[in-house]
Design a protein that fits this description.
By secondary structure, the chain is mainly beta. It contains 3 helices and 13 strands, in the order ββββαβββββββββαα. A 6-stranded antiparallel β-sheet has the order 1-2-10-7-12-5, with no helix packed on it. Strands 9-8-11-6-13 form a 5-stranded antiparallel β-sheet, with no helix packed on it. Strands 3-4 form a two-stranded antiparallel ribbon. A hairpin with a 2-residue loop joins strand 3 and strand 4. The protein is globular and about 55 Å long.
Length: about 180
Amino acid sequence: MTFTETILKGSYVIEPIPWGDNRGWFTRTYCKREFAQIGHNSEWVQMNHSFSSKQGTIRGMHYQKRPHSEIKMVRCIAGAVIDVIVDLRNDSETFLMNFSVELSAENKKMIYIPAGFAHGFQTLTNNAELIYHHAAYYTPEAEAGLRYDDKVLNIHWPLPLTEISERDTSHPLIDQTFKGL
């Protein structure tokens, strides 16, 4: 695997290195020793799988409040998405900056998201599926989010919006309540 740190310190685009032959290919998506080299020593305690049927669907921007902030690793196993992370660490030089990367079944890239970040994505294809690894358990009372269309975040969503949950459209704007993590 290769780990490329993004402009948001502590987050990485991970590229597995497939090995192939006439049968197809094989790749490693996690190795405790390799992840330790980027400072990841947490255990993955929960894995989730999402499916979005329509191209243009947006999910996000989700995070858990302290002390339940979570480290995530996200991977697309069907279709393609633009995956977006936002730095919510108010002591960070990149506070409220965002980074996006295309994750697809074809390119096999993953994104490593440290604690203190919001996460979301937009589907670039129909029938997109993501696998999420979490280093903290889902805690409903710690669940929070930011508006996907907040002008302060200035996230570039490449496609017109086709589907979004009522919950995701009702997250507050940053200037209304958000103080950082």
